[in-house]
Amino acid sequence: MGNKIYAASFCRNGILGGSLSVEDEGVRYRTGKVTVPAQFRNLLMRYEDIAEVVPDSLGILPTVSLKMRDGESYRFLVFGRKSFCEDVNSHK
Q1: Own/partner pairs for 50-56, CB < 8 Å, 24+ apart?
Q2: What is the pLDDT of residues 38-53, one digit of tens each?
Q3: Count of CB atoms situated within 10 Å of the CB of 65
Q4: What's the pLDDT at 2?
Q5: CATH code: domain of residue 71
Q6: Centroid of chain to Cα 72
């Protein structure tokens, strides 16, 4: 199965541009921005660790929160939110 890539911004201490890819092993956020902490520049969120995919919003901006089983939550502004949620849920 090929990876599907979505233009996305990570909502953590600001809005950090990058991309999300739906891969065989999980969802990966990537950015080349050096202002983003190193642990988030190539963040893999494995399907078995994702408890919930929640469409929500940040003000008027449509976002998606990936809620992890360990209690962590990652929020993204995703272009193509509905398709992204469907792709992630089809892998879980």
Answers
A1: 50/26, 50/88, 50/92, 53/85, 53/88, 53/89, 53/92, 55/81, 55/82, 55/85
A2: 899 999 999 999 999 9
A3: 16
A4: 67
A5: 2.30.29.30
A6: 13
Q: Give the whole-angstrom CA distance, residue 57 versus residue 39.
A: 24
Residue 34, strand partner residues: none
Contact indicator for 86, 80 with CB cutoff of 8 Å: no
**What total number of domains does the chain contain?**
1
Cα separations (Å) of 68 from 49, 53, 73? 6, 9, 6
Residue 58 is part of which domain span? 4-91
pLDDT score of 13: 86
**Confidence (pTM):** 0.91
